[in-house]
Amino acid sequence: MIIRRAKEKDITKIIDLLEQVLEIHADIRPDIFISGTTKYDYDEVKEMLGNEAKPIYIAADDEDNALGYAICEIIDTPEDATNKVKIKQMYIDDLCVDESARGQHVGEALFEHVKSEAKKIGCYEITLSVWSGNDSAEHFYEKMGMKNKYRMMEYILE
Asked: What is the full DSSP assignment across 39-67?
């Protein structure tokens, strides 16, 4: 397995993986997520490929087929706050391993690669969000050493 930057030939597989992630979220929160949709479409993913601030990393097998991805964003934060230290972070917008490749340490390899890339460019931290109820993702990120930074809570008005 190799980890590399995404190429245009990977977009179709990225869309497939985005669909897999969306279905997990739609099962957990059908009040928020619409089954059968994706977070990004083909053109949006293609645009990200040319944006250095939004790297997409691909885990590929020996035949260069995508097994998973990490869609990231490099953020200088906070942009307008006067009471916080200015830092650079690598935000993992989305990380997915194909259902057929789960359990083969693909996610770990992607996460370790993101850590390495973040260190290279001087990031202070790696951040991401996990939906409550996505226990397997939460467990995975904790296993990778991540901890809660803060918690967003909700009260649904009926």
From this structure: SS-HHHHHHHHT-TTS-EEEEE-TT--EE
- Pairing assessment for the beta strands 66-77 and 56-60 based on DSSP bridges: antiparallel
Beta bridge pairs of residue 128: 92
Compute the distance between CA of residue 112 and CA of residue 141 in angstroms, rounded to an integer: 11
What distance in Å separates the CA atoms of residue 158 and residue 150, rounded to the nearest whole number? 26
All structural domains of the chain, each given as residue ranges with its CATH number in brackets, are 2-143 (3.40.630.30)
Per DSSP, the residues of 104-139 read SSHHHHHHHHHHHHHHHTT-SEEEE---TT-HHHHH
**Contact present, 61 and 73 (Cβ < 8 Å):** no
Residues 6 or more apart in contact with residue 63 via CB below 8 angstroms:
none
Q: What is the pLDDT of residues 14-61, one digit of tens each?
A: 999 999 999 999 999 999 999 999 999 999 999 999 999 999 999 999
Side chain identity at residue 11, one-letter code: I
Strands 2-5 and 87-97: unpaired
